[in-house]
Structure formats: structure tokens, C-alpha cells
Amino acid sequence: MKIAIIGLGHVGLVTACCLVNWGHQVYGFDQDEKKVKQIKEGVPPFYEPALDQLLQDTLASEHFLVHSTLTEAISQCELILLAVGTPISTEGKLDLNQLWQALEDLVSLPILPPYLLIKSTVPPGTTTQIYHRLQDRVEDVICHPEFLRQGNAIEDFQHPNRLIFGLHHEDSQAVIQQLYHPFQKKSHLFQYCTPASAELIKLGANAFLATKISFINQMANFAEQVGANIEEISIGLGSDPRIGPQFLQAGLGYGGPCLPKDLTALSTLAESPLLASTTQINEQQPHFLLQRIESELGDLKGCPIALLGLTFKPNTNDLQASQAMYLAELLLQRGAIVQAYDPVIKDTPCKQLQLAQTIEDAIKGSKAVIIATDWEDFQQLDWSLLQRFRISNLFDGRNLFPYKRAQKLARIFRITYHSVGRPTIRVE
Ligand SMILES: NC(=O)c1ccc[n+]([C@@H]2O[C@H](COP(=O)([O-])OP(=O)(O)OC[C@H]3O[C@@H](n4cnc5c(N)ncnc54)[C@H](O)[C@@H]3O)[C@@H](O)[C@H]2O)c1
Ligand SMILES: O=c1ccn([C@@H]2O[C@H](COP(=O)(O)OP(=O)(O)O[C@H]3O[C@H](CO)[C@@H](O)[C@H](O)[C@H]3O)[C@@H](O)[C@H]2O)c(=O)[nH]1
């Protein structure tokens, strides 16, 4: 099929490369000329594992053409995928300005492809509003939300656990089957529903995941008070198939460009006290670790601290709504001198934050070490380094070390190990 993609951000670019891999011809367009130039040169404008090679292969195949005008991109296409950003506004609503701008640009064109699929996350009613705007010019406008995770985006796109389509006409299923031809024999993956349901499935999924995390974090805080261990509790809870083991990792809380934004949008729209609590618990979570650090180290003024990890999760260079960055800011507000190390971050908007080139440089001269993002590199942390640099407290804000392993390492290297919702391991 000939497909146009408007918006070549995380979703649009990964989608473009994967669709070419399935044999489609893709025409991409983004209003950001710098981004277009970079993509044409084979350089992804953001970090996503394996995307650089995939992009280069995709461009070499000549089945992905990146255009700097919308007209060029959509001429001769059978469908358009819209993947522009929908950030959160100051009123806690999804800001649809990019979407309305893209729509107006489309409306001004003499001919439109018959199908428009909305991949951007939008509030209920948006897809139908667009359909009414374009009704006499297209066959259907379909809400087709995206569920890929940053850091795992290619794998998620290629192996979806469900494909949701909010349609206005049942006939539209035929074009969807063509688009997703590799899954033709996996009919269980396809869910057809109303556009409003599809829009709410997307917001509901992220709100539910965020709530699951806040739930386990609240359990972790309580477990700490009663001497229980959240690692054991998560295993016990997750073994019930009705609960499931995923998203039960206690820590500093969730961040990133999606979970906080979509949760806030749904919470505002539905006026939901449950979702408002989810946000509140998440905002509090870094404060619990901060309190622990203060009770262990005392006044943090002038206290050198190593912070490992800045991104909102591993395998991304995204700092949006990062709980690690939030904790760094809290420490700086207390007067601590924060030396941070992150495998992919070489610069941050926070000028007071000192960035080290290596884990060793961050640790050297520090009084304590905090793990704030669960990068795999930190699992390989050499605890003898801590001992060598006379660090006696390790605060694991992501429960990166399984408890039994932490007990062993703490004993060998004589380190006090603090984590979230698990008893502190002290070595006499
Ligand atoms: N990032 C994710 O992991 C993820 C996953 C699932 C869903 N989503 C949702 O998908 C949508 C896109 O997310 P993203 O992370 O790719 O956003 P992004 O901000 O990285 O990319 C959006 C792109 O759209 C371009 N753009 C904006 N207005 C345009 C216009 N009028 N014409 C052409 N290009 C335009 C921007 O320049 C930008 O490159 C959002 O609604 C988001 O909530 C994101
Ligand atoms: O048990 C867990 C799992 C995750 N997190 C945190 O939750 C945040 C989000 O993680 P994740 O969902 O893996 O990352 P995203 O890339 O933000 O993906 C979410 O947001 C995307 C954008 O909407 C959706 O497409 C995905 O399905 C949805 O998982 C991160 O800060 C994680 O550290 C935890 O604290 N505990």
C-alpha cells in the first residue's frame, strides 16, 4: 500500500520504518525541517535502540521517502496516518493544536486519500469531529491508538498484543486488513469498535498502568512501616492471573511523555478522584526517598551525592516528567551537590546539575549513591567501587538489586543498602 505519515516523531518514525519492512511504500512528512533533514540523513532525532540501523536500511530500500511538503507526501496515497503530538495543556487537557493545524493543512489540499487513521492520543469525540469536517471528502476517519513503549518501540510495533480501530463504517475493515497484512491470520488481535471507545481504550490503558504503579508504590510505603518486603508482595500479587505480574515494580514512580499526560487528561475529563489520587501518590514518591536520605545523612547542604540515571526509564534519552530529574531538583533545593551519570544523557536543562562522564567519576568524592533509573548498566554496578570511595549508603530508588543479592553484596562490601518497600540492610 502507499501510505502517508504526518508527524515523524517517536510514533511516526518507528511506524514508517516498520511499515516499509512489511512491504508498504511510505511517504513521510513533518513540519520540523531540521527533523526532516536529520531523518533523510539516516539519523533518528531521538534515541531508540536499533532504530538508527533500521532507519538506514529503510531509506536504502527507497520505499520510505521523506518530504518537506504535505502535497508531495500525500499524492497517490491510499491512506494517511496522523501521528502529531498531543501534549498536555496547563488546564490538564490534551492540547490538540498540532492536530487541528495538520487537519487544516489537509483540508486545503484539492484531493485527499480515502482513509485517515488517527494514531495520536486524543480525547473521546475527536475522531468523529474530524470525520464530520472531512465527511464528503474521505471514506472514513479511524481512531487507531498506538501502544508502543519507548525503548521497546520496534519490538512493540512488530508484535502488538492488540490492534484497536474505532470506525465509522464497517467497510473500513478491508483497508485495515491490507495495512496489517502480516497479522491476517491472527484475527484475535483486531478489535473494531466505535471511535469514542477506541479513544478511551488508549487513555484508559495508560491511566490503568499508572494506577497500578501508584498502587504498588503505596503498598511499598506501607510495607516499609510494617517490616514487610514489597518484592515478595509483588510476586504474590502478580501470581494471580487476574492481577498479573507486570507494572508491579515499586520505585520512584512513573514518568515520561505518556503516562502522566494521558492520566491527567482522563482524570480531568472524567473528574475522577481515583485518578487524581494516582497522580498525587506519584508526585509524593520521590519525597519518601528524599526523607530517607535526609534521615540517614542529615542536612544535605553542601553534601556531595552521586545520582545514577536521569531518564524517565532505561533505553531512552527522554527526560520528560522524569522522576529521576525531579529527585535531582529536590536534592539541589536542599543544597546538595549532585553529580549525575546517565548512559545517554550528556546535557540537561538543569544547570546546577553536574554531569559525570562515567559512573566512577560520579561516585568519586560522594557521600552516598542513589539509583534513580533502572538502566541495565547499573545492575552491573561494581560495589567494590563504593567501598574504595568510602561510600557507606546506597539508595536504590528502583529496587534494581534483588533483595537476596543486595544482602550478599552489602555484607561483602560493608554498605548500608536502602530501597523502596524493603527493609534496609545494615551491616554492623
Ligand atoms: N512517544 C510514545 O511512546 C507514544 C506511544 C503511543 C502513543 N503516543 C502518542 O502518539 C502521538 C505522537 O507522539 P510522539 O511521541 O511521536 O510525538 P512527537 O512530539 O515526538 O512527534 C510529533 C511530530 O509531529 C510533528 N508535527 C506537529 N504538527 C505537525 C503538522 N501540522 N504537520 C506535520 N508534522 C507535524 C512534530 O514536528 C513532531 O515531529 C501523541 O499523541 C502521543 O501521545 C506516543
Ligand atoms: O512496574 C513498573 C513499570 C513502569 N514503571 C515506570 O513507568 C513509566 C512508564 O513506563 P512504560 O510504560 O514502560 O513506558 P512508556 O514508554 O511511557 O509507555 C507507556 O506510554 C506509551 C505512550 O502512550 C504507551 O504506548 C505504552 O503502552 C505505555 O506503556 C516509567 O517511568 C517506568 O519507570 C514503574 O515505576 N513500575
Give a verbal description of the structure.
Keywords: NAD, Oxidoreductase. Belongs to the UDP-glucose/GDP-mannose dehydrogenase family. This is UDP-glucose 6-dehydrogenase. The protein is α/β, with parallel strands linked by helices. The protein has two domains: 2-192, 3-Layer(aba) Sandwich (Rossmann fold), CATH 3.40.50; 207-418, Rossmann fold (3-Layer(aba) Sandwich), CATH 3.40.50.720. It contains 17 helices and 14 strands. It has helices at residues 10-21, 33-40, 51-60, 70-74, 97-107, 126-134, 153-158, 173-179, 195-226, 230-238, 259-270, 273-297, 323-333, 359-363, 376-379, 383-388, 403-413; strands at residues 2-6, 25-29, 64-67, 79-82, 115-118, 140-143, 163-166, 190-193, 304-308, 337-341, 354-355, 368-371, 393-396, 416-418. The strands form three sheets. A six-stranded parallel β-sheet has the order 3-2-1-4-5-6, sandwiched between helices. A six-stranded parallel β-sheet has the order 11-10-9-12-13-14, sandwiched between helices. α12 crosses α13. The longest helix has 32 residues, at 195-226. It is elongated. The mean pLDDT is 96. Bound molecules: nicotinamide-adenine-dinucleotide and uridine-5'-diphosphate-glucose (UPG).
